[in-house]
Amino acid sequence: MHRGNTTKSRNGIYGVPARDDYTDFPELRGVMDDIYNGWDFILKDNFDPVTLALALMDDSSVGKSRDYHEFQRILHDLDDVLHVIVKDYYKGFNNSIGTFGGVLQNINDSRDRVKHMKTDLEQCKRELLENRTDLVNIWSKTQQHKEMLNLLESIEEIKNTPEKLVNLTNNKHVLHAATLLMGAIKTVESQEMKKIGALDDLRLTLASEKNSLYDLLLEELHNHIYLKSPYCENLWSDYVPGQQVLPESIIKPRTFDHGNDAEMKDIFAMDENDILAEDIDKNPETDSYYYMEIILEALAALGQVPEALETLQERLPLEMHSLFEKTIKQVETRHVLQSGHSNADQNKNDEDVDIYCLDKANSDERNEILKDLLWTLFSKVEAVLRAYRFIETCSHRTRSRLTKANDEDEAFKIYHFHEIWRPVQTEIRALLQDYLTSQERRTQQTSMAMSNDLRKSTQLFRLTDADENKQISASYHDIQDTLYNNYRKMVPDLASIGELVSGSVMHSNIIDKYSTNMMLRGSYKLLVKPDAYNVSVLLKPTMVFLDRLRQVFPSYDDHNEEGFGNFLDDFAIHVFLPQIEEKVMQLIQTATTGLDAFQDARHYTNYSKYPIVKSAVALISVVQSLCRTMHAMPFHTDEYIRMIEVVLLKYYEKCYQRFYATVSRTNSFNSTAREQHGADTNISSSGDWAQDESLVGLLAQNPFFNDDTKADEEFVKALNQAEITMEFKLKNESQPDRQIHADELIFDQSKLIFLGRLYHSLKWFVREIWELRKAHKSSSTASPDEPDSYEAAISKRWSHSVKRLSSTEPTESAALPLRGESARRFDTLLTTYQQLAETCLFTLRLEIRCHTLYYLQMVVREGNYFLEDESYEPDPFVISLNADLMDIDDSINTSLPRKDEVFCFDGLPALMVHVLVSEASFIKRMNRHGAQKMIRNILALQQNLTNFVPPSQSAIMERARRYYQMFNYGTDNLIKSIRDNGPSYTFDEYHVILALINNANNEEDNENEEATTSSSDWFMQLDEVMAEYEN
């Protein structure tokens, strides 16, 4: 029953609980409600039952006799409820009474025992106060027996130590094992234990266990540093196709709060006073950093941290080499199936590889192998270096703690990070060099270096040739044993090899693990053929890896000789850039000296509407690759720019040699003609004239050359006449009125086609170079663009005159940064390219005009115009000229756009008219049939010209036709026509046609004197008529 708040009244009755306290007895609720409704005064502490009884018996108006029956009813209900409650709970009441009796009995017994104990204590007190000497002896013997028992227990516990060590080491709880072992060793080495000779074997066992535990700790540490443990899989990541960054490791070292100290916010920073506690309930290997810290604490407990650090540093080169080889095997295994499937298509893929792109030298499959190797390897190396950094931090913490605890001034040496980075970068450098340089080349270089060293030194003697000396042999065996013991400490797995222990490998070759000599060190297995092109694949992962190292090791001095940046810088200077430069020179040689170097590129339609030579496309690919590489490896940019300048210079030389060989008078087109030329080499007249500065200056003003649509007609006419005058001047330099010979012309149509190809290719080449420079200017925001020089502006406008279809590669990542002196040098180079290209175009134009001069001079000087009968066919030389012009036009159409074709034929009718009129003095005799033949020649030429020039230009041929039509006028009519209409020709031209007219009239040889007189008459008449118009 609930008895929460009951109290006892002064009349001896326990008070009734509060109204809410009888909820445990539902039967009582109704009765209590009746009591509270009118009878609640009986529940008060000062209730007097006698007063109530008298009131109930009082029949007066102040009495309660009228409530007597109600009181009896409530009393009866209360009795019934109580009976029900007692009936339900009487068993519990009975048990409580029995329990109460038992508790009361126990209390009485305890009281009796306390009374008895008090009596015993009083007796002991009395006895202790008595003086008894035998008690001291008994106590002394008791202590000795206890010490003996403790000693035996300790010995027994120490004997069980090896078994406990096995259990702890099997569960990887090495800190507990080291603490247990060192405690046991400390015990057996105590003064008490040293007196027990029977423990000598146990001491040796514990010393052996210490060495074994030390070796085990080192192996476990190496397993987690070099990712040999299966629990280290989460410390590094395999390559994922398309990977561009090194993934972050999931497992991080534990960190400590150092407040606001920014320098201490390193993930490897630790408080020297914070000692890691080993959790015996978990597998420590699941967290490699935790496990390595536990191992270092165990080594500190063993007191062998310095030896362990020294061993770590000694084994680093061998372990790193092993890690590299293991990674190479893993990558090879991953790709062996893929290579099996792709071997069938390998030859086809090799054909499609652009060997002139440094970043596309290999097929995608081979590049994926290289990427897989480097990204996977660098992920592992990063994990290894993180582990070494973590061990270094833990060692500093341990050393500081031990130094303070022992008050020692001298502390053990801890390796610096550069001592770890040095052999790592050596292995990385060796691997990168393996894929950049072939083994034959490295062997050749090494052999040359060794030969030079051997020349400088002289062998004095050989130890193997010396006589055997027992004393020396004994000393040597001691050294040999020491060497083998140290080697077994470095590589414990080899301790079981009987061959090593027995010394049968004593005369084996020893490889210097620190040597940088590739032939002595040995190369890695190559998964891809070594080539300098591979740098495009090797570079990106290497730079990302070095950037990650700067993040992982922020406090490391990156500016010293062995810094991350200096490593790559040194690699670039001594390995990468020389290889690239050598490869670039090979590419220039390959691209420009092959039989098809100046043939049409296979897919030239991707770059231009008109053919481009292979060498131009190839070398643009080289330049763009160098720009992309410079963008990816943004240091030593001057070297890249210098190599690009070399490409431009070498290609210009080859193009000029090809041009010179093309315009050479020799009919052979062999390598000697292509590669050599000198001052005494004869070239075609067009090639010679195209290099004359005066004539070039006139040609450069041609409106069709400059795309000048607003040129004045009079200016164009004057320009054409000046060009004709200059051409005749060049023709007649060696001899007045010289006639051009056939060997001065280019009849080979392939040469004419090549000149057009070369012009368009050089123009495209210069345009692509400008696109690279334009890409840099558009992407550079560091400084304002420098204004282009006058030559650069002309070259840029000239090269961009034709719409650009596309480039060999997108220019987003290929940009050519040029400023200052380098920009000026490039402007000069591009100007020379422009000049050579213009020379090719000018040569085509001048070749057309030279053909015209040659044939028309032959028409005039060698033609027969004194005919007995009328001729209905043009002169054969006219027919040949028309055929040559058609062939040249076809050659130009296959190489150049329409505007260049118009430029080549522009002004040709004026030249024909000039030759036909000015050369008329070389006609020996002419009659009416001959004049008609000449007119027919002119009409044939005029009709053919409509295929090349606008009708407005071909109409000028009417001037020549009218000139020879004047032959039919006769002397008098011609003089009269001049007097009436004015002169249309010069005095000399009228004089020539009049001379032909009068010579035709004098058919008899005996009339020469009369003809002379007649000639004097018409000459005087012509002079008078012309004088009238001149005045």
TrEMBL record:
GO terms for cellular component: exocyst. Residues 283-543 form the Exocyst complex component Sec8 middle helical bundle domain. Pfam families: Sec8_C, Sec8_N. Signal peptide: none annotated. Keywords: Exocytosis, Protein transport, Transport. GO terms for biological process: Golgi to plasma membrane transport; protein targeting to membrane; protein transport; vesicle docking involved in exocytosis; vesicle tethering involved in exocytosis. Belongs to the SEC8 family. This is Exocyst complex component Sec8. It comes from Hesseltinella vesiculosa. The lineage of its organism: Eukaryota, Fungi, Fungi incertae sedis, Mucoromycota, Mucoromycotina.
